[in-house]
Amino acid sequence: MSGSASQKLSFQAMIFTACLFPFYILAATLTNSAAILTDLLATSFDLTALTACWLVLRLAHNSHSGKYAYGLGKLENLAELMIALLQTVLVFIAGSNAIMRIIHPEGVSGAELGLFVTAAAVIGNAILNRKATRLAHETRSPVLAAQARVHLVSAISSGSVFIVTVILSIFQNVTWMYYLDPVASFVVIGFMIYNIFAMLSSSVASLLDQAIDEAGQLRILKVLTSHFDDFDELGDIRTRQFGGKMFVELHLGFEGDWTVAKTRAVVARLTDAVRQEFKQAGDEVDVAVVLIPAHGTEAEAA
């Protein structure tokens, strides 16, 4: 599936959430439901996250048109950190409101528009989740996988708010059911906290420089083993990953009587083999080979 299809899906999701957002504001204004207010706050997070997702995909798509998007991975992870901080503030606001409803429970009124909006949110997010999941599987895109998670969480949380609001609208005179409204609010808050931890765990780890994991190291060794006769000496194998990017630097020595053309051909074959090995696992990697001369300093060949 092309990058333009991924960008189009993210744009559709952003527009859908943006169109739904003013109705959520109106619904939260007309009703006294803590659950609908919390769902409104969660939707504001969704709109921010989907907008960031669309911008990242747009930058990535433009980077293939002759311009390299320097720092794109860092930008993506910094955006995730900012969104996680925003959602933390929203969690405190929603949690304070839900706690007040537990202390002072009351029945839900004026929730007709809220029922319509939450039902539309469930249907729309379920459809978008299915599309994003399929695209993420085909393209192995972490951005689309995150978008699919946003839609799934939104559909489940809006569904729980819809069910609780329907129950409270039917059984308005059953006082103990008033507690279902803040309970539904805490369910949505739980999903918001899950999103915060998911974003922080991925973005913070990607922002820090670190070596490629053991599985990646084994892929490199597999390629070197299969091309063992192509080089004369193996030196350091240096790896690095940050901002979602992977880098491999191989220090190799070759026969002293080889021509420059032959050495370059072998280096090109080795680097291409490493890239293909990582590509089969759904990863992209930049590979450089540093020549180990018979004596003197090392020089980079590719």
UniProtKB/TrEMBL annotation:
Pfam families for this protein: Cation_efflux (PF01545), ZT_dimer (PF16916)
Alphabetized UniProt keyword annotations: Membrane, Transmembrane, Transmembrane helix, Transport
Superkingdom of the source species: Bacteria
Keyword Protein biosynthesis: no
SUPFAM superfamilies registered for this protein in UniProt: Cation efflux protein cytoplasmic domain-like, Cation efflux protein transmembrane domain-like
Leader sequence residues: none
Residue stretches spanning the membrane: 9-30, 36-57, 78-103, 109-129, 150-171, 183-208
Domain Cation efflux protein transmembrane: 13-208
Any Gene Ontology biological process: intracellular zinc ion homeostasis
Compartments reported by the entry: Membrane
Primary location class: membrane
Topology within the bilayer: Multi-pass membrane protein
Chain ranges of the Cation efflux protein cytoplasmic domain: 219-280
A GO CC annotation given for this chain: plasma membrane
InterPro entries: Cation_efflux, Cation_efflux_CTD, Cation_efflux_CTD_sf, Cation_efflux_TM, Cation_efflux_TMD_sf, CDF_Transporter
Single GO MF annotation: cadmium ion transmembrane transporter activity
Similarity section: Belongs to the cation diffusion facilitator (CDF) transporter (TC 2.A.4) family.
Protein name as it appears in the record: Cation diffusion facilitator family transporter
